[in-house]
Design brief:
With 128 residues, the chain is mainly alpha-helical. It is built from six helices and no strands. Helix 1 runs antiparallel to helix 2.
């Protein structure tokens, strides 16, 4: 197993192909160490080249909630306000740092995907 830097898109693609061959690797083996180092190189390349970008914060939240089986009602319990939870998911109210903190504290969701600005949809009930 030969370790080399990931400098190009072709290197990046090849690194993922190698990871596929080594997944899963048993912890404590040379393959596991190789997998670990290669993963770090891939993450570094993505960070430097911004390949992944940040998702829409609300879409990220909906995705995480779906993956973990959480409901809007559970989000309302965390935020201590069912209406706020619904308005947050409908992009009527913004994602605030206290909300990001609660998502991290209660559900262990990473804060970074929630920091990207996004456009709010106006509240139709507020306009009447």
């Amino acid at each position: 197993m030969n370790i080399r830097p990931i400098r190009t898109a072709e290197d990046y693609k090849a690194a993922f192909e190698i990871l596929d061959k080594h997944w899963p690797a048993e912890e404590g083996t040379k393959e596991y160490d190789y997998f670990d180092i290669l993963s770090i190189l891939i993450l570094n390349y993505e960070k430097e080249n911004r390949l992944m970008g940040l998702p829409d914060p609300i879409e990220a939240l909906k995705y995480y909630m779906q993956q973990d089986g959480h409901s809007v009602e559970e989000l309302g319990l965390i935020l201590k306000d069912q209406t706020l939870a619904k308005k947050l998911l409908d992009k009527i109210v913004p994602m605030t740092l206290p909300i990001v903190y609660e998502l991290y504290k209660q559900w262990d969701y990473p804060p970074v995907p929630f920091l990207k600005p996004y456009k709010l949809i106006s509240d139709p009930l507020a306009e009447n």
